[in-house]
Specification:
By secondary structure, the protein is mainly alpha-helical. It has two domains: 2-100, RNA polymerase sigma factor, region 2, helix turn helix motif (Rna Polymerase Sigma Factor, Chain: A, Orthogonal Bundle), CATH 1.10.1740.10; 112-257, Butyryl-CoA Dehydrogenase, subunit A, domain 3. The protein contains twelve helices and two strands; from the N terminus they run αααααααββααααα. It is elongated, with a radius of gyration of 20 Å. It starts with a helix and ends with a helix.
């Protein structure tokens, strides 16, 4: 315990030196200390990505997000740096992935169709539409809908780890808006309180199974395969349920922020 306290004191002193003098050597020490955080975030973003996307590339993209976070972080506000940095790191990785545009245009187009249709049906039904209702509205078969959800999931376009712009250069990750609603977070300064309430309302419209999948995956840290065992369905079916649920949440939030 004494060692941990000593490390914390050293880290606080390091931050104080950097805030006061913006010393390059001190910044390098901070980058080295928080580098494992970049690897963690890159690993989460990499889930479901094509094999052509190298984990090392994601880490290198994330380092720029870490540097940006260190530059802009203010310890005096009392927030935990790791919480603040995760959003910046995710944003840097996703921004770079978007810049290379590795997602097939057809998949991106069909994803937009599903999201817009989901939002329209939810507004009419005041709940998340069933797969059958969504497919009928799209003019697809249920099998075609499931195939699209699988393709979208494989490109990691629908994940709560994705970061959305909230204006003035700031960004927020969906998963962060769903965490510990009672605790004060850095995102609160970005008008996230209203966003959290919106998502709480939207979560209530999801089916029990969709809520269960999100909870087990994001809060319990279970794999899609493990969730399939719990729900007694295939891993691919869990993947489809997850993708549909997240697209529903994302469509709702995007409409609010735009």
């Amino acid at each position: 315990m004494g060692t941990d306290t000593s490390v914390e004191r050293d880290l606080e002193a390091l931050w104080q030196r950097y805030v006061t003098g913006r010393d390059v050597d001190v910044r390098e020490q901070l980058i080295l200390h928080y580098a494992p955080l970049v690897k963690y975030v890159a690993g989460r973003v990499a889930v479901g990505m094509p094999t052509s996307v190298e984990h090392a590339d994601l880490v290198s993209y994330g380092i720029f997000g870490l540097m940006d976070a260190i530059e802009k972080f203010d310890p005096a506000k009392g927030f935990k740096f790791e919480t603040y940095a995760v959003t910046r790191i995710r944003g840097a990785i996703i921004d770079e992935l978007r810049s290379v545009d590795w997602v097939p245009r057809s998949v991106r187009s069909r994803a937009r169709q599903v999201e817009s249709t989901l939002y329209r049906l939810e507004s009419e039904l005041h709940r998340t539409p069933s797969d059958e209702e969504l497919a009928a509205e799209l003019g697809w078969t249920v099998d075609e809908l499931h195939d699209t959800l699988m393709r979208v999931s494989m490109t990691s376009m629908a994940a709560l780890d994705e970061v959305l712009d909230v204006g003035e250069g700031d960004r927020i990750a969906l998963v962060d808006t769903l965490q510990d609603l009672a605790a004060e977070q850095p995102e609160d300064s970005y008008d996230a309180v209203e966003t959290k309430q919106l998502l709480r309302d939207t979560l209530g419209r999801l089916t029990d199974r969709e809520q269960t999948v999100l909870g087990l995956y994001y809060y319990e840290g279970m794999t899609l395969s493990q969730i399939g065992d719990v729900l007694e369905v295939t891993e691919s079916r869990v993947c489809q349920i997850h993708t549909k649920a997240v697209m529903s949440l994302r469509a709702k939030l995007s409409d609010k922020l735009n």
